[in-house]
Design a protein that fits this description.
Bound molecules: S-adenosylmethionine
Number of helices: 10
Strand order of the largest sheet: 3-2-1-4-5-7-6
CATH superfamily of one domain: Vaccinia Virus protein VP39
Distance between the termini: 58 Å
Number of strands: 7
CATH class of one domain: Alpha Beta
Shape: globular
Radius of gyration: 19 Å
């Protein structure tokens, strides 16, 4: 007799060893060496289903094609996540990010080859899938921005602060006729993004330039602009946003995000609420079309700040 309690429930999605070999390697590496995140892959596939697993497999399998390369990326993720947990615990007590100048963050992080290539960039890349609020933000990007580009017949886009190249790569794969240009100040973000997009087979439609667009504006201006998780890294986000606004073509649209209440080694500007980001966007001349807010987890007690991802489609 069927179990009436479970018969009508949809089956929980699981990894498939044939379809997701890189994720199976990742799962094993986490279970054996990084117990604090032992079940994060299983929990994510149960939460987001096989589409999540297929998408993540295509990125990890292309960029980290051997079991050793996957294990290296997982080590980077573990170091990245542990550092952010330590800083978050201090933030919960102190109520502020540890003071740091932009130049200090740049030399400690963006211009530190070992840290960028071994920990920060692989860690950030994996977090885009392993942290639920990050993955939900990527889903919002797909439905609110990539679909709008498709419908409008977009031919090009610009990303500022490319980091891992995940958002540019996602767009290039979804829209095969589109070309992109990425700007960043870090030579290691450039190197990582180029390797990532080449591995995905979309690098021939993408150029990366080392440039601070607020100092040297983009020309021709952008119809479609993406800037993910850069604002909280700056001392004066409004000045940066004014620079982004000035780089947009008339009628252009931008996808701009910020991390809130999320301590990290290079997070300088503390946003406590999504409205803090929106107020800056409006001050810089943007008009809101759509927004998204996702929380990393439930607060451990009332009033304890929780990392949020806030994303805005603006024109
Ligand atoms: C958290 S990462 C961005 C994440 C990235 N968008 C992703 O999805 O992986 C921050 C990036 O911003 C870059 N950055 C910092 N200041 C910048 C500036 N003034 N102009 C352009 N990029 C900048 C850093 O080098 C780093 O690559």
């Amino acid at each position: 007799m069927p179990d009436t309690k479970t018969a009508d429930r949809p089956a929980v999605a699981r990894l498939d060893r044939q379809a997701h070999p890189a994720l199976v390697c990742m799962n094993e590496a986490l279970r054996v060496r990084h117990r604090f995140a032992a079940d994060i892959v299983d929990r994510s596939v149960a939460l987001f289903g096989t589409r999540w697993a297929d998408e993540f497999e295509s990125v990890v399998g292309a960029l980290f094609p051997t079991a050793d390369a996957v294990a290296g990326a997982v080590r980077g993720y573990a170091a990245f996540a542990m550092q952010s947990m330590r800083l978050q615990a201090a933030f919960e007590v102190e109520g502020q990010y540890r003071p740091k100048t932009y130049d200090e963050a740049a030399s400690e992080v963006y211009f530190n080859e070992q840290h960028m290539m071994q920990e920060y960039l692989p860690g950030l890349l994996l977090s885009h899938f392993l942290w639920p609020h990050h993955y939900r933000q990527l889903q919002f990007f797909d439905s609110a921005f990539v679909d709008a580009m498709r419908v409008a017949g977009a031919s090009s886009f610009v990303e500022v602060g490319i980091g891992t190249g995940l958002y540019s790569g996602f767009l290039l794969r979804r829209l095969p006729d589109v070309r992109g240009t990425g700007f960043d100040i870090s030579p290691f973000s450039k190197q990582f993004t180029e390797a990532h997009l080449d591995a995905l087979g979309v690098g021939d439609r993408y150029e990366v330039e080392l440039r601070d667009v607020t100092v040297e504006p983009i020309d021709p201006r952008a119809d479609w602009l993406v800037c993910v998780e850069v604002l909280e890294h700056l001392e004066d986000p409004v000045a940066f946003l004014r620079g982004l606004r000035a780089t947009m073509a008339p009628g252009g649209k931008a996808f701009i995000t910020a991390a809130l209440n999320a301590a990290h080694a290079d997070h300088i500007h503390l946003y406590r609420a999504p409205d803090d980001v929106l107020a800056q966007l409006v001050e810089a001349g943007f008009t809101l079309e759509q927004s998204f807010v996702g929380a990393a987890y439930r607060p451990s007690a009332p009033g304890v700040p929780v990392p949020l991802a806030a994303a805005f489609v603006v024109c």
